[in-house]
Every structure is written in structure tokens, then in C-alpha cells.
């Protein structure tokens, strides 16, 4: 135990988002509250390296940005990608159409064109590509992009449809070539793709919008024998291939197949996951299992959003209240209903991201960056919420509290940071910490309770006393 004379005070900056109205606000004065909660930080205890945080480029978001005036378009992209904004570092986009497209489309429009002689990304050139290029121009450090197809071209499937069905074995090589052509076409537009997932949600989505079904073994064999070798042969061996890309409860079955042995593992860079299985459970046991199965592979959350809801316009309070429902509130099976109670959107984001970081997840990507007041556009009318909502008719923008929650992580936990030891002696609050490449330490604390709390930060022989408001998320940056 260090003596009082050995104890030094830590130099910190504190940023808070709270139900009371703070929005990533810098806090400099802390009230005295008795019985502080102890947070111990141990930089010597190291876990995963952080890949990044961010959101997704979708046709819906890009279309809406085109409908806004230049000033508001720039305001939104600056908020996500500039040094003054959230500094998004890890993003996702869709390969051909998804539910958040205006219509169904594929890049291989000519049936049985197995050599992809008529391959075209024309559908992306009005909306999606300009949005990505403008974000690139704004971002000082740049950002990684993971691209995911929702469906292979329908003519490659047993049902010849965008929705559902399986890839026919005779088109395995054609679908692998489709990926290669996509990477080449986007590179010609000035966009380098960092990684791809094999398919979005291989279990399907209840046959509602674009999907292609794979079993764990089918996807593993496709990557092992077709996609991996093709990308390697065509000069794309540095592009990361991610398997799975669906909800976390299924992780053990998928990683057992993907990482069965050296041959099956070879081309997989990591595993992609979603959060839609529960409004509160982040499935720590399954995340731990996936990490232990392949400790040197990425484990990235590629999609999460408030679904089955229409955004609440300029109503910050709603995002802090337990009023939201998800698809499972209405549709989950009886034995899974308990996983889908009403929830507060802010709590769900904060809890999930902290829970993921504390269980080996190295990247976390939100879904749409921008949606309209209906929660679209979406050709299937599968409405959702985004951190930024716009009224394109009136050229108005609303930054919801979810935008600030994302920024608490993306702005202060930078790519290359290391997750470090961080414990808290209180079960009501959550916390996590990383050490950034510049040597600073970012500690995120979430207080979902109705009362402000006093915190004592301990790091080695250094301490600092602070407070966190009721119903608040804080990022504490420790200057080392």
C-alpha cells in the first residue's frame, strides 16, 4: 500500500452524456458524494487490440444525405468523421442491395454470367460511393470498411430469388469471382475495402428481405475452397474474410466449424457478430468461447440497431426510458421471450459495447448512420432507428443521444489501443478501459441508476476522485 506521500493525483479530462442534458459535455467540477465506487485500472494487464468503432454506409443513409442541403450533409459527415466529431474508424457497407436499399439490385444482372463480363456497380454511383468518398476526404486518420452481401445474385440460388434460398454448388466459383470484381470496381472508384463477410445473416431473416442461407460447414467449405483461394489468386490476400455475421448465441457452433483445423481456419481473419438475440444480454460466455477457440482472430460486432421502432424526433428523453421494443417483443418464441423485454436505447448501446469490450470483442459497428423520421427508407418497410435522424423535406437534422453514446467510444478509443485491466466494486455500474497508442488511457463508465455516484480512480500509486451523474455515460481520459 502506497503511503500518502507517494500518492499522486491523476490528470484527467471527463466527458459526459446524461439524461439531464449533457451531450459529450466536458465536465470540470465534481460534487462531493460519500462512499466512492472504486475503479482500479491496471495497464499491465492486456487483452485484445482495438480495431475500431463506427457505423454503416447504406443506400438509405446516402440517399437521405443527397436530399439535404449541402450545409446539413456536411454537418452530419463532419459529426461522424472529422477530428472535432466522433472520428469513426471502422465502418461497414453492403455489397449490392439490402433491406436499407430503395429496391432490390445485384451487380451481376445477366443470368448465368459466370465470368462476370457484365458486372457493374452503377447502382452505387449516385448515393453510396459519393457518401463514402466524402467521408474519406473528411477523416484525418482514415477508416476501415467491411463489406457484406445480403444475397448472392438471385440466378445463383436454388430459388432464383433475392430473398432466402441457397447458393447452388455450381456457382461457388462465380460467387467468389463476384467478390473479386467488387473489390476491383470499388478500388477504381478510390475506395479500398479492408474486409468482407461471406454473407449477412446466414440463418436468414424469416425470409423477409435479401438473404442467402449457409450452414457453418457450407460457409467454411466455400471460404476454404473458393473465396479464400480466389481472393488470394486475384491479389486480394490482404482483404480480411469474416465468417458467420449473425447473432451471438450461435457463436460456438460456427467457430467450431470455422476453426476446426488449420485448413478450415486458413482464410478466415475473424468472426462477425450481431446483437439481435436480446435487448439486454450480450452473451459473454459465447464471446469468451469464440475468443478461446481462435485467440489470434478478430471478433467484430458488425451490426446492431434499435429495430422494430420508428425514431422519436427531437425527444431525447425517450432514448433514456424503458419504452423501446425489438422484433422479439412480438415475434420471439415462447422460450426466448424473456430475452426481449422493453429497454432504454441508450442503456442497450452502452451496456452492449462495454460488455463486448470486456469479453474480447475488438470492433463495434452500428447499423445505418442516417435515417428519416419513419426509420427508413427501406424497401421492405423494416423500420429502425439511427443515431442521426433527418427530416429531408424540411432539411432538418436531429442528433439523438445514441450519436453521443457511439462517440464516447469511437472518439476516445483509437485503433491500435489495447484493452487493459479495469475492475469496479459495484454491480450497478459498468466500466471498461483501453490504453491508446499515444499513451493516454480512456475509461468509460456507465451509471444507469437514478442517483449520481462518486468514483475513485486508482492506477498504480495514483488516484483521482470524480463524480458521474445519474443516468449518464462518461469517458474519462487519463493523460499518462
Automatic annotation (TrEMBL):
Domain Glycosyl hydrolase family 30 TIM-barrel: residue ranges: 50-413
Alphabetical keyword list: Glycosidase, Hydrolase, Signal
A GO molecular-function descriptor: hydrolase activity
InterPro entries: GH (IPR017853), GH30_C (IPR033452), Glyco_hydro_30 (IPR001139), Glyco_hydro_30_TIM-barrel (IPR033453), Glyco_hydro_b (IPR013780)
Pfam families named in the record: Glyco_hydro_30, Glyco_hydro_30C
TM regions (residue ranges): none
Location of the Glycosyl hydrolase family 30 beta sandwich domain: 416-476
Annotated PANTHER family: GLUCOSYLCERAMIDASE, LYSOSOMAL ACID GLUCOSYLCERAMIDASE
Family: Belongs to the glycosyl hydrolase 30 family.
Annotated protein name in UniProt: Glycosyl hydrolase family 30
